[in-house]
Amino acid sequence: MLDGLGMLLGGITHFLTPLSLFNIAWATLLGIVIGALPGLTATMGVALLVTLTYKMAPDQAILCLMCIYSGAIYGGSRTAILLAIPGTPASAATTLDGHPLALQGRAGLAMGLATTSSALGTVIGIFALALIAPLLAEAALKFGSYEFFWLALFGVVISGQLTAMDDPLKGYIAGILGLMVAMVGMETLHAHQRFTFGIPALGGGVDLIPAMVGAFGFAEILGVIKRTAQARIVSSSEDRVVPKLSEILKYWKTTMRSGVIGTFVGIVPGVGEDVGAWASYAAAKRVSKEAHLFGKGSQEGLIAAETGNSAVVPGAMIPTLTLALPGSAAAAVLIAAMFIHGIRPGPLLMTESPDVLYQIVAILLFSTLAILVFGLTLTKPLLTVLSVPRERLMAVVYVLCVVGSFAITQRMFDIYVMVAFGIVGFILREMKYPMAPLVLGIILGDLLDLNLRRGLMLTNGDPTPFFTRPISAVICLIIVLTILMSIPAISMRVRALFDTRRAGIDR
Amino acid sequence: MTDQIEEPAGGEAPAMIKADLLTSLVFIVLSASMLYGSWTMDRLANRRINPMTVPGLVPGLLSLALLICAIALMVRSVRTPSVGGWLDLGAAVTSQAARRAGMVLFLALVYTLGLVGLVPFWLATGIFVLAFILVFEVWLAAPRRTLRQSLPWAIGLAVATAAIVTFVFERAFLVRLP
Amino acid sequence: MNRRRLFVLATGASALLAGTSLAGAQEWKPDRPINLIVPWGAGGSTDQVTRVTAPILAEALGVDVVVVNQPGASGAIGTQEVLNAPHDGYTWTANAIANNATYSVSGLLEDTDIDDWHIYLSVANVPVVSVPANSEFTDFGQLLEALKARGQEITVATAGITSSGGTAIAALSDAADGFEYNMITYDGGGPAAIATASGEAMMTTQLAVEQTELIRGGRLKALAVLSDQPLVLEGVDPIPPITEWIPDMDLAPDYFGIFIPSDAPAEVLATVDKIWAEKVLNSPELKTYAETFGAVFAPSYGAEARALAMPVVILEACSSVERGEAVNDPSTIGIDCATRTETGL
């Protein structure tokens, strides 16, 4: 333990050089910009920088890559709050409450809270990384196909819950549509083409990024321009960027819970920041006393989403470093980059070069600090975006949507996907269908389909393990309870039961 | 604002209910055809795969689920009284606001499907931004601006966007633009 | 008249040069970044080796070589993009040759074969048969007996029928009188190895490079390598060759490399040929990569690379026919499966 603390201090002092601080500054800032541009993701940012940092010293290269990674996950919240267009899939959940806050003239506060929440989320994840990394990685290995299936199903149920306030039926329809979109393309279990209608480009399926940029971005542009007499968003005089300490502390339970959820989602290979944000958001909504405010500008919802996605970053580093298993897509690229620089993550890392782990911890701490500094100082100038006439702004935003959906795979097909999802998304939004379950459905569709059938394949068609494996059984139980509790008659009785009990104790 | 489908207290707007009826029919057709597609999908019997793992399993289940939801939506919208719903809906799709959305769509489609790929990306982008701003500030705006007011802004922004986007993506992010 | 003589001289000289070697061709100086399309996901085995190779080429060429991941349809989508792009030497692809050269047999792409590409190979990867650390099987002989006796019960984790692991288990079955097995497909070689380590699947036949860390960490027990040489991995006992149990097995190492459309300008190919000969052939980075990840460092280019690659292409094409997956007969790309030789078109 003391050894660890010493090495952590060593790691921190290692990066207290002018060159390192300079690298931290520009890399984090570049990460924030990449994250804020719709379509450019953290994975793409890291992959790009691998090429550019090749000639750097190993520690400096990894420093830049990690800073880009955490900067990008945070940066997505900027456009999510200001324009309701998530910069990366990780901040799709942030739009739900971040943008309504901006519409209420509190964009500054929303961006400030997003900044502090991101920082706190990373710190919670860092604790897990520094203290119990190997143990946690072991737990993640227990997640097999059966468990992933239940997790995906849980996500689908959550997506219905997320929108239960307005019109659950439309929420479920949007979620199912998203899942259906994920069915298009070659399924990897038997390499069979589904619903591709002979179009070769559809063989790879519909990519999440262009679909999301379309459903949130282009659809939002259509919606904004359609409404002529919309009051311009003006920052109210009460709005400020640096949140009060009381505002941060008020929801400390949500912060802690979201941090833990995000970290765990990060550890589990195969799911990333987007799922971390949704899971934290849904959990917060489930237990919140102010659940009715969620989706209408709830600070708690914003905090949950931003803490949840940022905690995934250090969480994902846990299996990456200790087992050489990437905990997220960006971490997979990081492994490749580490190898290029002669760092070999894996089970032997802790014995061969334990200082690497603590250097990574130190890097994450520094990038968190950089995010805080940039986040709180650069927000004021960002607010001027809101005062630009929207006719002018939206023209530029559409250009970014086009470039963003093209940038990742550099195929024209992805631009067409973006346009198609924009049009369909616009029509659905006009009829009050929520976009969040649609996007969540696209994320979860593959997970649900492949893991269900893979599980059945493993047992030659016998579904018992889905119910008898311990973790599976627990998640299954939670899903059943969630569904039961969403039926008003049952939840009322349960609550009544608890109330009488508590009353009994009080007496 | 004829199209703003406001929710009156205690129920949905009549136009929305009619729109729901239409979409429920669309969803029923969609789910039924997807169900058919899943049912007739190759079961890969020649590869002797387990019948529980056929590719059509999950799509089939999903289309069933959508079918149920769509029928529920249809029943709900048929049962809810909605006087004058069709007229309101018709007014909504032909309103000035709908025309503005249609114009965005038209400009966006010309830009993405026509210009991009035909002319260099920076030129396409410049033309799009210029046209977009002029159309929505000079022509389809509520308080219209004069051409003289808008043009400098439009040109400036068009040039700036085209230059910055092209430069940043091609030089800094090494993306080969279309 | 003077001019005419000059012209004759010039053609004569260039013909002479072309006859001896391409080294004298004009050197290519790229003026913008090169896109190297990896038709698989970021962090996979193709992506990893490509990201090690790309900086070497970038340094020699003096421009960035940007690795772009375009996954989908077993790599067919990204490969199609490269074929569609202008063949001006600025768009390359990286892949396993067994995949790249058989897309028209598997029906994923139309009308393409190995001769559409100028081939640069860097490493060869070998599949390793591994079981979970606590498995009932302690050597390959036991596992083979179990596969023959109750194959349907043995679950084999791979990245799909067309993947290296899928081909490997099919080849094993062919060599051992066609035993049955229950193949479970994962989203890549890495996830397949993880699933085996966690005990979800009973064995895996993915590439060594995808299993090394798990083998070193004692989570996977490597039973045999599909090669005629033992595989030496730093930190663990040498992995015995499959030929100890199945002596007459058809073996063909799967080569990974970079492919440039063969009708790209001649100076492009000549320049990259030169870089491959001077830089890649003795690259310490690639050597270390190969040594640590259980790959074989085997760089080659041009005609030599094509000759080395052909056995695995033939094996892949013909076994897809036997598995009933081939859409087009291998004879359409000049391969005769009766004799397992290349006949040409």
Q: In percent, how helical is the residue content of chain C? A: 25-40%
Shape assignment of chain C:
globular
**Structure class of chain A:** mainly alpha
Arithmetic mean of pLDDT of chain A? 83
Proportion of residues in extended strands of chain A: under 5%
Which spans of chain C of ≥5 residues are poorly predicted at pLDDT below 50? 1-24
The biggest beta sheet of chain C is recorded as: 6 strands, mixed
Instruction: Characterize the overall form of chain A.
Output: globular
Write the H/E string of chain C, N to C. HEHEHEHEEHEHEHEHEEHHEHEE
Radius of gyration of chain A: 22 Å
What multimeric state do the chains show?
heterotrimer
- What's the arrangement of strands in the largest beta sheet of chain C? 2-1-3-10-4-11
Name of the level-1 CATH class of the largest domain in chain C: Alpha Beta
Which whole number gives the mean pLDDT of chain C?
82
CATH superfamily of the largest domain in chain C: Bordetella uptake gene, domain 1
Word description of this protein:
The complex is a heterotrimer of chains A (507), B (178) and C (345). Chain A has 507 residues and is mainly alpha-helical. Chain A has one domain (2-230, 247-468). Helices cover 74% and strands 1% of the residues of chain A. In chain A, strand 1 (185-187) and strand 2 form a beta hairpin. The N and C termini of chain A lie far apart (47 Å). Chain B folds into two domains: 14-93; 96-172, no CATH class. In chain B, helix 5 runs antiparallel to helix 6. Chain B is an all-alpha fold and 178 residues long. Chain B has helices spanning 14-39, 57-79, 85-93, 96-115, 121-139, 147-172. Mean pLDDT of chain B is 83; it is low at 1-11. Chain C is an alpha/beta fold and 345 residues long. Chain C has two domains: 25-124 and 253-342, Bordetella uptake gene, domain 1 (D-Maltodextrin-Binding Protein, domain 2, 3-Layer(aba) Sandwich); 128-244, D-Maltodextrin-Binding Protein, domain 2 (3-Layer(aba) Sandwich). Helices cover 39% and strands 19% of the residues of chain C. In chain C, the strands form four sheets. Chain C has a six-stranded mixed β-sheet with strand order 2-1-3-10-4-11, sandwiched between helices. A three-stranded parallel β-sheet of chain C has the order 7-6-8. A two-stranded antiparallel sheet of chain C has the order 5-9. Mean pLDDT of chain C is 82; it is low at 1-24. The interface between A and B is large, with 61 and 70 residues.
